[in-house]
Amino acid sequence: MSDSRASNVRRSAPSTPPSGPEREALRARIDAELADMASVTVSSWMLARERGNSTLPGVPRPASEINVDVALAPVLTMARRSLTPGHSAHITGGDGVLLAIYRPDDGSVHVRDTVDTRELLRLAWRPRPLRAAQPPEGWRSTSFEAVQWRFSLLGPAGDQALSRHWRDSPLRLREIPPFNFSLLPGRQFEIISALQKGDRSLAELVRTVGGDEAQLSRELVALMLMGCLVIV
């Protein structure tokens, strides 16, 4: 997107956006996510999947970072809904070995650097005290929002992540996404422009920006997770 095109988007928002170090960290993370996605021209989920059975049984098959985050997203959502204050979550793979740690108090997620694809088949989580949330040295650090962002745009079920009440209710643009506008995908630019003109339902947005409902659902989930959309 050119600078002139981005300048046509109003920077004002219907409400004051949140701020703070967590917000800035998320902005940097999502900018990096978008930069990584900029050259993707086909299904990112299909590109991320392991191609064929290229290794022998028992030989480790490292999972991509996208594979890991997409698999973690539903488990982290369940943990977030169930954890009580003062607790974190330990996520284990199919072999029972610790794979990730989630801290709901600050939204941080820490993931083991090397994960076998077979570990992602049977993920489980259990509550642990916050004092047990310190990750081992060398683990990758991300956030709950960034993991959910990847799931919504790249996961195999991301088009189903928009809950029914979000599908049936008018949506309002709460704030401009915290992204570098040169990285903002063209369709999301069109969605934002449409919402700036007034509240829109999912069906109205489909008629306005085109495409199918499944793809639009992914894009709306991504904006929702950033706190840019609210239900009227």
Explain this structure.
The strands form two sheets. The chain has a five-stranded antiparallel sheet. It is elongated, with a radius of gyration of 19 Å. It has about 230 residues and is an alpha+beta fold. A hairpin with a 4-residue loop joins strand 2 (about 100-105) and strand 3 (about 110). The chain contains nine helices and seven strands. Helix 2 (about 20-35) packs parallel to helix 5 and helix 4 (about 65-80) packs across helix 5 (about 145-155).
Could you list some keywords that capture this structure?
40% helix, 232 residues, elongated, disordered N terminus, two-stranded antiparallel sheet, 7 strands, 5-stranded antiparallel β-sheet, 9 helices, alpha+beta
Give the topology.
Layout: H1 3-7, H2 21-37, H3 44-48, H4 65-82, E1 87-92, E2 98-103, E3 108-111, E4 124-129, E5 140-143, H5 144-154, H6 164-168, E6 171-173, H7 186-196, H8 202-209, H9 213-225, E7 229-231
Antiparallel strand pairs: 1-2, 1-4, 2-3, 3-5, 6-7
Helix pairs in contact: 2-5, 4-5, 5-9
